[in-house]
């Protein structure tokens, strides 16, 4: 917990309030005296010129010092700043440009389908798989005058739950205007560096399991590659890693096939 500043303490000090009232009263009196002197001089000139004397000036009031003064109509009071509507704002971070049509409708069946495939931000969930699945669902619907990107921006929040939903609400208001920005923000947050490092390590240290067939091992290796698009290995390096990781008898078979193809 941080300490309150000296400035905050001074603002709430009763002696400061008392001094402020005295200064306002003194200023009002000075203004009244100056107005009286000006009026007296004007009366003297009117008498010399044979004119009627001007009316006396109004008694200046100090609105800030009058505790009974009423606020002007429409002017906010201190209490108004604490009302709910005073601080409410549109906090939605997703604001794509409006479509050409405003009479479009997203079918409830599509929303329900998106909600059935939610991403909650759990370690076992894969953000890239979620994006691919979501985009595939969105490809099944369209609306004239409404872009596919706009529909994705409007639908994606329905696909998020738990931690992922809280992440979305934490984004600054109006900070995302396109689907590409939305997708990048989601992937950058949930596809962490630790996850990327872990999958790269699985690729570089790949070994075929004792009870794993050749094709099962190959599918698992391809899955690692798919799960880490930024693995950094070229195609030749990847197949060398796979070759080194498979059982010896399969290496012999691959060597034989390679020899037959090159002969």
TrEMBL record:
Organism the protein comes from: Microthlaspi erraticum
Protein name, entry field: Retrotransposon gag domain-containing protein
Start and end residues of each Retrotransposon gag domain: 154-247
Bias-annotated ranges (Basic and acidic residues): 1-52
InterPro entries documented for this protein: Retrotrans_gag_dom
Segments of this protein annotated with the region Disordered: 1-89
Xref: Pfam families: Retrotrans_gag
């Amino acid at each position: 917990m941080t300490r309150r500043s000296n400035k905050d303490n001074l603002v709430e000090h009763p002696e400061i309030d008392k001094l402020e009232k005295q200064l306002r009263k003194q200023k009002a009196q000075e203004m009244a005296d100056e107005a009286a002197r000006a009026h007296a001089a004007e009366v003297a000139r009117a008498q010399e010129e044979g004119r009627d004397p001007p009316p006396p000036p109004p008694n200046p009031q100090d609105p800030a010092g009058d505790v009974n003064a009423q606020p002007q109509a429409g002017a906010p009071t201190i209490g108004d700043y604490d009302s709910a509507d005073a601080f409410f704002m549109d906090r939605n971070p997703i604001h794509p440009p409006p479509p050409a049509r405003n009479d479009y409708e997203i079918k409830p069946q599509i929303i329900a389908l998106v909600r059935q495939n939610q991403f909650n931000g759990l370690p076992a969930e894969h953000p890239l798989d979620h994006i691919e699945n979501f985009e595939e669902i969105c490809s099944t619907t369209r609306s004239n005058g409404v872009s596919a990107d706009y529909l994705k921006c409007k639908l994606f929040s329905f696909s998020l739950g738990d931690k992922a939903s809280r992440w979305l609400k934490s984004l600054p208001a109006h900070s995302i205007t396109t689907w590409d920005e939305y997708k990048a923000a989601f992937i950058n947050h949930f596809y962490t560096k630790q996850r990327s490092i872990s999958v790269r390590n699985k690729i570089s240290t790949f070994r075929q399991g004792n009870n794993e067939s050749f094709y099962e091992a190959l599918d698992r290796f391809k899955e690692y590659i798919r799960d880490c698009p930024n693995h950094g290995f070229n195609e030749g390096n990847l197949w060398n890693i796979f070759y080194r990781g498979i059982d010896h008898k399969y290496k012999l078979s691959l060597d034989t096939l390679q020899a037959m193809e090159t002969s």
